[in-house]
Write a structure and sequence with these properties.
Layout (H helix, E strand, L loop, with lengths): L1 E4 L18 E4 L6 E4 L10 H11 L3 H4 L6 E2 L5 H11 L3 E6 L2 E7 H9 L20 E2 L5 H11 L3 E5 L2 E6 L1 H6 L19 E5 L4 H11 L3 E6 L2 E7 H8 L21 E2 L4 H11 L3 E6 L2 E7 H9 L1
Helix pairs in contact: 3-8, 4-7, 5-10, 9-10
């Protein structure tokens, strides 16, 4: 059964706490490389090089972070084929091209909310019935913070065009991967996380969880085992673990959920959360306060915080 939760019983799992780089050192004694806590006799002030690099990152361009080699599909192709391609390639969207011209985009969210949740047959539903258009276009020389603002305002992935030619795509994951350590990213994730978590037991039928994700237009559900948080089920899990392998929907959601559950402590900064999500290759990060799940922060939440 899927349910909303303001917080779950105290789970007995270890938190994945992000440690800033300047709090660690490398110990090479005995020929063994280990990470050891660095001694901090006093406050370390950033060097001129540190400040210059930080300023450079703050003014990076879209061309520095965009994903090139965009994977495409055609309007007449079935959503079953589109979902399989996304699942096999572990990507969240396909550019829709007609006569060599990009005209729209179809995403994993579209597949779940506009096809599965409505009871449509993916094999008999064409991409053009589901895709979003027109494309949200930006230039490659746009600064990444302006790109973030465009993404939040227009609510979608960004197609990068130069002289009428598609050069790449920018997603929330692209933006957080190199998010600068700046005043706007030093705020706590607690201010931006979603507190009302949607949860389900691991033995809940997959079809029920997918229906919930589609109706609520959410990207994930926390999966519990005996009342304790154990895993997370995401849109990507559905495409990568299920549809790409040709399995059916008549299984328990716990069978294809991602575990163990990666979490972070309440109070970490936007920048720290972005670094952790980028290093773990995840887009959703549950936040823990005093051993209770307090909320969840997503890549798009981080982009919104950065854009303000």
């Amino acid at each position: 059964m899927v349910h909303l939760s303001q917080g779950l019983p105290r789970p007995q799992f270890q938190e994945n706490i992000y440690i800033p780089l300047n709090n660690t050192g490398i110990d090479l004694r005995g020929g063994i490389t280990t990470m050891a806590k660095a001694k901090r006799p006093g406050v370390r002030f950033p060097s001129i090089l540190d400040r210059a690099y930080s300023e450079y990152k703050r003014h990076r361009k879209v061309s520095d972070i965009m994903t090139t080699g965009v994977v495409v599909t055609t309007p007449g192709r079935s959503m079953a084929d589109a979902a399989r391609i996304m699942g096999e390639r572990h990507i969240g969207s396909l550019m829709v091209v007609k006569y060599g011209c990009p005209i729209g985009i179809v995403t994993e969210r579209d597949f779940i909310s506009r096809v599965l949740a409505k009871g449509l047959d993916p094999g008999n539903t064409a991409v053009e019935q589901v895709m979003s258009f027109p494309l949200i276009r930006i230039c490659p020389d746009l600064e990444i913070r302006e790109a973030a603002r465009t993404m939040i305002k227009r609510k979608g992935r960004l197609a990068v065009f130069s002289c009428g030619r598609l050069e790449g795509i920018v997603t929330a994951s692209d933006l957080i991967r190199d998010m600068p350590d700046a005043p706007e990213t030093s705020l706590s994730v607690d201010e931006y996380m979603t507190r009302n978590l949607v949860c389900a037991e691991g033995d809940t039928p997959l079809s029920e969880v997918v229906d919930t994700i589609g109706r609520k237009r959410i990207g994930s559900v926390i999966i519990s085992r005996e009342g304790k948080p154990h895993a997370i089920f995401t849109e990507r899990d559905l495409l990568s673990s299920l549809l790409a392998k040709g399995s059916g929907m008549d299984i328990e959601v716990g069978e294809i959920s991602s575990s163990p559950l990666i979490t972070a402590p309440s109070g970490i900064s936007i920048h720290e959360a972005a670094q952790m999500m980028a290093s773990k290759h995840i887009r959703r990060l549950p936040i823990v306060r005093k051993n209770d799940l307090a909320g969840i922060i997503t890549a798009r939440d981080l982009v919104e915080a950065y854009a303000q």
